[in-house]
């Protein structure tokens, strides 16, 4: 019995085609991410569907070298954020809740009120809610640039319209 076991370990190793193939997973890094700049027009688009598409782009899930723990997504510019749409009566029925930090400091506002005061805030809030709640999510959120009108200051980056 012992001799047969020793023969198995002493036998020369036979190589096959499988041993020579490389199936190593390639992970993207900051240097190999291939980040691009894209422009998204929010005019007339539904808020949730727009935010979902933008979060997908910011995360980099549309790329073949997507890596979950690396910022490999694109830089996204959203224009015409003041003209985003909501289905149903959400523009007046939905409520955003924030807290001032003081006793009795809970404040409520509707999307219509937010659009009047800060037109970019509802789009930013919707996209942020779809990103990871971690340091990576905060880093990804910095790649988002939202503008209320059609003008933006990123022409030097030569963004692509999608």
Question: How would you describe this protein?
Answer:
- The chain has 162 residues and is α/β, with parallel strands linked by helices.
- It has a domain at 29-86 and 117-161: Ribosomal protein L13 (Ribosomal Protein L13p, Chain: A, Alpha-Beta Complex), CATH 3.90.1180.10.
- Helices cover 32% and strands 14% of the residues.
- It has seven helices and six strands, in the order ααβαβαββαααββ.
- The protein has helices at residues 2-10, 17-20, 47-59, 90-93, 111-117, 121-128, 135-141; strands at 37-41, 75-79, 96-99, 106-109, 144-146, 160-161.
- The strands form two sheets. Strands 5-2-1-6 form a four-stranded parallel sheet, covered by helices on one side.
- Helix 3 (47-59) links the parallel strand 1 (37-41) and strand 2.
- Helix 3 crosses helix 6 (121-128).
- The longest helix is centred in the N-terminal third of the chain and has 13 residues, at 47-59.
- It is elongated.
- The termini are far apart.
- 20% of the residues are buried.
Total beta-strand segments = 6
What structural class do helix, strand and pairing data support? alpha/beta
C-alpha end-to-end distance: 70 Å
- Based on the structure given, which CATH architecture of one domain is correct? Alpha-Beta Complex
Write the CATH homologous superfamily of one domain: Ribosomal protein L13
What is the tally of helical segments? 7
Helix content: 25-40%
| Integer-rounded radius of gyration | 25 Å
CATH topology of one domain: the name is: Ribosomal Protein L13p, Chain: A
List low-confidence stretches: none
- The CATH class label of one domain is Alpha Beta
Following the backbone from N to C, one meets helices and strands in this order, namely HHEHEHEEHHHEE
User: What share of residues are in beta strands?
Assistant: 5-15%
Please, what is the average pLDDT?
Answer: 90
- In spatial order, strands of the major sheet run 5-2-1-6
């Amino acid at each position: 019995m012992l001799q047969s076991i020793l023969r198995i370990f002493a036998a020369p190793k036979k190589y096959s085609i499988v041993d020579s193939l490389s199936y190593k997973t390639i992970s993207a890094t900051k240097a190999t991410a291939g980040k691009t700049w894209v422009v998204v027009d929010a005019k007339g688009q539904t808020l949730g569907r727009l935010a979902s598409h933008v979060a997908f782009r910011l995360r980099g899930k549309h790329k073949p070298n997507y890596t979950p723990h690396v910022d490999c997504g694109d830089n996204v510019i959203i224009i015409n954020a003041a003209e985003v749409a909501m289905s149903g009566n959400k523009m007046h029925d939905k409520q955003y809740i924030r807290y001032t930090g003081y006793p009795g400091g809970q404040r409520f506002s509707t999307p219509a009120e937010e659009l009047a005061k800060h037109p970019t805030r509802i789009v930013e809030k919707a996209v942020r809610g779809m990103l990871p709640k971690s340091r990576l999510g905060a880093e990804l959120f910095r790649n988002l640039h939202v503008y209320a009108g059609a003008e933006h200051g990123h022409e030097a980056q030569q963004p692509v319209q999608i």
